[in-house]
Amino acid sequence: MIVRRWLIVALLVAGLPLPLVGCGVPSSGPAVVVKAAPRNGVPSNPDAAVTKKTPLGVTDPQELVRRYLQAMAWGNDTSQDPNATDKAVESAKAFLTPEAQANWVRGQDITVVRVQFNLLPVTTANGIRVDVAMQPVGVLDGHGSIEPKATGVPSTYAFTVVPEERGRGLRIANAPNGMLLSTEGLDNLYNVEPIYFWDSSNRSLVPDLRYINRSLSPATRVAEVTGWLRDGPSDYLRPGVSPLPAAIEFKDRPVLDATPGSVRINLAAKAANVQNQLAKFAIQLRWSLRSLASSVELQIEGQRQDLSRDVAWSNPAAVPDGQRDAPRFGVVDGRVRQLDGDPVTVPALGSDDNNNVVSAAILRGPVQEVALVREEAHGRLRLWLGSYNQGAKAAEYVATDLEGDVMSRPVGVLTAVPSDPAFLLAADGRLCAVSAAIRQCVDRTPPGIGAVTNVSVARDGRRVALVADGRVYIGMLTFEGSIPSVSQLVEVQTTLSDAVGVAWSREEWLVVAGRSAGQSALVEVTVDSALVEQMQLRGLTGLTVTRIVADPSVRPDAPLRGERGPIMIEANGRVYRVFSGSVDEYPPEASPAPSTSASASPSGAPAKQSLPSAPFFLD
Description:
single chain; GerMN; 40 strands; globular; 6 helices; disordered N terminus; mainly beta; 6-stranded mixed β-sheet; LpqB_N; GerMN domain-containing protein; 7-stranded mixed β-sheet; about 35% strand; LpqB_C
């Protein structure tokens, strides 16, 4: 769905006719200003200094090690400071004794590690031992990306902490080799800063997760982000997105006017050769800079650019015009029904084929393609696809050839063939792709993983998350016609065991349902595994979660990390809404939803109310 609500191309015209744009560098004319994309959140004081902590005066051995594992922060920022790595190395070495400094080998890369301190420090003959379990997450590169480690096997390292020679605190006597940065340091000293690339069919924006140095000034952050855009997508996204056209080169450093929050981008002369792509580039810039600026002005060789008003490009994750509450759906008495949220009319649900439904999906858009997993008379499940025929004024459903004993909820995907959308679902351990034209399972199970049990597609339609044998993976969707395939598969470290469900809760975050300490648990985790947030929820204890769904829409006032979208779970055969600190049964037992199959009980008592199952949001 194309959303234009916050992305507006406005011509600044000072009472002059609009010039025509020909070959070469265009003549001076009105600037194109791309305004008001949803803000990713600007700190209340963006110029406040952010500094790393030093070892001076530290008397707690664990605190010393914790600070040491944050000292390599900003060492990847060599595009803004060629000496950044050397400076970070010196910052880390300040935590070590002279002998440890002499023996330490820095290595080539900054490795991000998830850290857990084991028990309390122990006094030994050599000093104080601090045991730390460290799990490698990936390598933080100079473009703010974390390239995942092939094997993130945790290991425990015993740090030895001794008094500093001049009695000014403590130092580490035996640091592990390599430049290490804890995920805590990443969280504290970097901002999450997604940048955006157009998907390979040039239809939708796809976010690329980056981490930006919080100590940089806003103007320097703008230069960093625009440089990342010029250098292209991360390796993970590369198969499914497009880099900037080669003709788009920055003539000089972007200029940030901090008072109105506008950025001026001056391009080299050859950008005039791709004039028809500049409007799209302006939108890409606006989304990528939304935490830093409120508008973007494009120039070529110092001359303002006049672009068309009709820019039909947007972010599919943006909240649709006028939406106040995401529509929620579920299955009640074997039929798909809207549970609540902004009312949505789905004519295809009025069909008699909307029965015996186990789970379902509705692909948003003018056609509203519907996928139903229905139970057949012999107890097996079959996938049905349907939509509403406006000409015939009737819903039309067709049975696909996909039949199985166990099926996940289907998820809809817009393909490069608009008239032929596809659905992905897990069926008897296989990842199946089914399109309206090819009504059978095309097996897209990635090699090297176990039985697939759950699938979720990001709102951009190019990133996918899977659960297979209790583990969570992410990958990219590429297309052969209207049939998607999965590539670039990487396991996500969730800190949970036995994952049963995954959903996209924010543009760059997954929410995962699994087990922790023998109980059902939910966590949110970034797609690169670096940041994990445990969700402490009242009412979850004692429930067995079997399904999780979310709506990752972006709102204009979202904070730096984005705003967690609404989440629903299915547990113990019932539907629950997930709030910031609790889960509540849906609908509340005190006011159950009206029954759709009403017959009064013979005794005159109120009929038993039906409760929903199989919750979902629009895809």
